[in-house]
Amino acid sequence: MTTEEAPLTFIAVSAANVARARRWHPDFDDDEHPRWTGADWSNAMFAPAYAQAALDLDAGKLLGGRGELLNKLADEIGDVFLYLDLLAQFYGLDIDRCIADTFNRVSVREGFPERLEVGA
Fold first, then answer.
1. Local mean pLDDT, 10-residue blocks, the chain (120 residues)
2. What whole-number distance in Å separates Cα of residue 6 and Cα of residue 67?
3. Residue 88 in contact with residue 98, Cβ under 8 Å?
4. Which domain holds residue 53?
5. Cα distance between residue 115 and residue 103, in whole Å
6. Interacting residues of 113 by C-beta distance below 8 A, sequence separation 6+
7. Cα(21)–Cα(86) distance, rounded to whole angstroms?
8. In this structure, is residue 65 part of a structural domain?
9. 112 φ, ψ (degrees, to nearest 5)
10. What is the rounded CA–CA span in Å between residue 27 and residue 73?
11. CA 75 from centroid of its chain's CA atoms
12. Are 10 and 98 spatial neighbours (Cβ–Cβ below 8 Å)?
């Protein structure tokens, strides 16, 4: 990363993600008649979440080579995150708040000191 580049943030990803989703789904914000429901956004994550590439890596199936499988896995991870973000936005939730709250709740429950802070 050069000094001119800013780190990628949840806010930046979410803004671009919902802007692009509105192009594909002009009714994304239509509470009365959305083309996709919350269940549709949730279900869209299942195929990438299954991540055949991870299963192949774990099973030692390196027919396409480890690098190719890692690239496929990286694509699947990106898909899952982007659909998860759209699901959160569909319901009016902030992905950063969802992640921080869950992370912190588990840290408290397990007695760990790590905490995430979300900007105001």
1. 72 90 83 78 74 69 68 84 92 92 95 87
2. 27
3. yes
4. 10-109
5. 7
6. 107
7. 8
8. yes
9. -95, 150
10. 31
11. 11
12. no
